[in-house]
Amino acid sequence: MDDELEKALLQELAGLKESGLFFLDDAVQSSPVTRYLSEERFDCERDRIFRSLPLIAAHAGELPENGSFLTRRVGALPVLLTRDRDGTVNAFMNVCRHRGARLVDEEKGCKHSFSCPYHAWTWNSSGKLRGVPHEKPGFPDLDRDVFALRRLPAVERLGLVWIIADPDAASDFDGFLDPIAGDLIWAGLDTLGIAARDTFTLSANWKLLVEGGLEAYHFKVAHKETIAPHFVDNLSSYQMLGSHIRSILPRTSITSLRTDDIPGWHIRDHANVLYSVFPANQFLLMKDHVAWVKLHPLSAGRTEIEIATLAPAPDITDSKAAHWHRNHEITKRTLAEDFAVNEAVQSGLESGANAVLTFGRYEGALHRFNEEVEKFLV
Ligand code: FES
Ligand SMILES: [Fe+2]
Q: Is 3-52+179-377's fold the same as 55-170's?
C-alpha cells in the first residue's frame, strides 16, 4: 500500500464519519445455512479449497536456520517442513515411505536427518532416502528416488511459507498471491517474529470465524467490555484484492484528523488494517504488532484455531516479553467474545430456526468472501 492510498482510505472513512454516513454495499444479501452445516459441502471445500489452493503453513521465521524443521497439519494433511542445507524450504508429507508410520513426532527442532521410529529408514532434509537397515537382502534393487519423501508444492514468499496440501496439485502461487503481495510487503511480515501463540478447538464452521472479522457492526455490542470504546461505531471499509480482503477498521482518533495535515497521516496511527488471506488466515495490523488468526477446518462444525502475536523480530526480547504477553492476552480476550458468539451461532444454525443468514449493507464483505468460496466449488 503506498502513501497516497493510506491517506485516501483514511480520508474516505473520516469523511463518512464526519457526515454521519456508513460504508455500504448495494444490497442486502443472504447465505444459506447449509453452507455451514453440511458435511458433504465441507468435503468439497476441503478438496477444492484446502487441498488445491496455496495455504500458509508457517511464518518463515519459524524455520530460522538450515536444518530447522517443523511438523504441522495443513489442510488436514500431516506435513513436515524443512530448511535444507541450501537454505531452501521444503514441504513433505510427514509419512514414512516404507509402511506409512509418522516419520517425525517432534513439533520442531534442528537436524538434517529424519529416521523413522518403526524400522529406521532415514531421509535427509531435502527428502532423499539415505538409509535402509539391512537393505541389500531385504530390499534388493531398491530405487531410492522412488522412495523419496512425498513432496508438496512449497514456496517461501512475503515472510511466510506457503504450501499446497496435495502432492499432485498444479501450483500457481504467483497468480494467487500477486493481488495481495504488495500489501503484505508493506505490512512487513518478513520483519516480524512470533512473540506468543495459542491453539485450541472451537465448535463452529470455519467460515463463521472468518466472517466475524469482516464487519464492525458488532463491535459496540459484542465487544462492549473490551475494544468497543476504541473504535468508531459501525464504521469500516473493505477492498477486494483478488480472493483476499483488506478491511480498514477506524479507531476513534480518526475524528481528530485535520485536513490541513494530510501529509502527516498514516493509516496504522488511526485504524487497524485486517488482511483476510483467502481462505482462512487473518492478519490484524495494529500500531506496533500484528495478531494472526489461522484456521484449520476439521469438520463442518469444528475448527482448530491458532492465535499468534507477531512483533518486530528485534523487539522480541525478555525485557519486552510482558508487553507482548499483555497484547496477546487482549487479543485472546477480544476474540473469546467473538468465538462465544460464533459457537452459539453454529448451534443456532443446527436448530433449523433460520434457512439463511442475512448480511446487511454494512456486512458486504461477508457476502464477497462467500462469493469467493463459491467460486472454487463450482
Ligand atoms: S514404517 Fe517407517 S521404516 Fe518402516
Ligand atoms: Fe469481533
A: no
Query: 306 alpha carbon to ligand 2 midpoint, in Å?
Result: 16
pLDDT in tens, 310-360: 999 999 999 999 999 999 999 999 999 999 999 999 999 999 999 999 999
Quickly list H helices, the chain: 3-19, 34-37, 39-45, 135-138, 173-187, 206-211, 219-222, 267-270, 321-350, 364-377
Query: Which atom of ligand 1 is closest in space to residue 120's alpha carbon?
Result: 3
For domain 55-170, give the fold: Rieske Iron-sulfur Protein (2.102.10)
pLDDT mean across residues, the chain: 96
In this structure, which topology does domain 3-52+179-377 adopt according to CATH? Answer: Naphthalene 1,2-dioxygenase Alpha Subunit; Chain A, domain 1 (3.90.380)
Domain boundaries, given as residue ranges, for the chain: 3-52+179-377, 55-170
Residue 113 DSSP SS3: strand
Express each pLDDT in 88-105 by its tens digit: 999 999 999 999 999 999
- Confidence check: pLDDT of 20 > 80: yes
Question: What's the CA-to-centroid distance between 127 and ligand 1, angstroms?
Answer: 15
Cell 482510505, located at residue: 9
- Nearest residue (CA) to ligand 1, atom 3: 119
Query: Which residues approach ligand 1 with their CB closer than 6 A?
Result: 96, 98-99, 101, 116, 118-121
Q: Which three cell numbers stand for residue 119?
A: 524400522
Q: Which amino acid is at 231?
A: F
